[in-house]
Amino acid sequence: MKNFEFANPTKILFGKDQIQKLSTEIPNDAKVLMLYGGGSIKRNGIYEKVTEALKDHEVLEFGGIPANPEYDILMQALKIIKEENISFMLAVGGGSVIDGVKFLSSAALFEGDEPWDILTKKIRTFEGLPFGTVLTLPATGSEMNSGSVITRAETKEKLTMGGPGLFPVFSVLDPTVVTSIPERQIANGLADAYTHVLEQYMTYPAGALLQDRLAESILQTLIEVAPRIMKDPTDYEAASNFMWSCTMALNGLIQKGVPTDWAIHMMGHELTALFGIDHARTLAIIAESHYTYNFESKKEKLAQYAERVWAVTEGTLEEKAKAGIAKTTAFYQSLGIKTKLSEYTDQYTGTAAEVARRFEERGMTRLGEHGTLAPTDAEKIVEMAY
Hints:
The protein is of the alpha/beta class. It contains 14 helices and 8 strands. A 6-stranded parallel β-sheet has the order 1-8-5-4-2-3, covered by helices on one side. The radius of gyration is 20 Å and the shape is globular.
């Protein structure tokens, strides 16, 4: 097991009726900016619960943050933050809203001229404007980590940022919100969380026995609850386990002491930037090709995964490893998610070369757990995903 440091300061308020506790979690004298997405919170009752809980606070609102948080829209919110001297933000939404608020947390205290530099120059944030979250869509784990992904439509870019100053102060996780989530978004959440675990697990044995077991337990839980929550989003037990699994998948715990990959995410981000494909679905597009292309370096963990998670006990190590890849693809497909790029667009010709060009341009030349995945390798992997 590798050396590591672990600190996660985010307070979690989990369960029914936790939204009403917002009034005690946000300072009484705070000037609050509540940010949300397309307005679904006004149709499912969450907006009313939040505003009731904050009735004694001074609250301004900013809505319209899209599914891939758009830089230009966030800059409009940043203007309000500065003009109104906002001292606390509340993200009410899924990972995109929370990611957008993390960017604003950093940008609000950024001393440079162009906040986009935070992403292009990979500037880590050690202090940001404080914020909390009310999670409405389990998927990304952004409610309990310090990472963020921001899109800029003007340049067709989707870039990452982060730093220890971007952990939410608190996050409210009420599983009853799952009741109002469309089936497509539930499927995305399951696939997103599942791939988050794989990116931290599907590397090579590192002697981190507990970390492996924790990762495998999250995968097993997602597999178990997936058909239940897809069939009946009012199933509170399934919704609770779904929501907590998504949070645990990317709150930093299971990646400590082990090598991690994240190449699937990097390639997936480019597919979203180029074609607007849902983030989770881009991960499903790339996964099979990535594991097949890197089979030799990953086959031990692939076989372990097949045996422990999918109960594949017959065959050689290589046969089990290949079964693990097939089971992963089948899981995505069981959620109604297509796993080939050509099933999303007929404009895929040249995509692999463009992804490689972007990686080269940004200096992303040493991806993967071994740091050996070059842009030319990414090109081949994306081509395999057509």
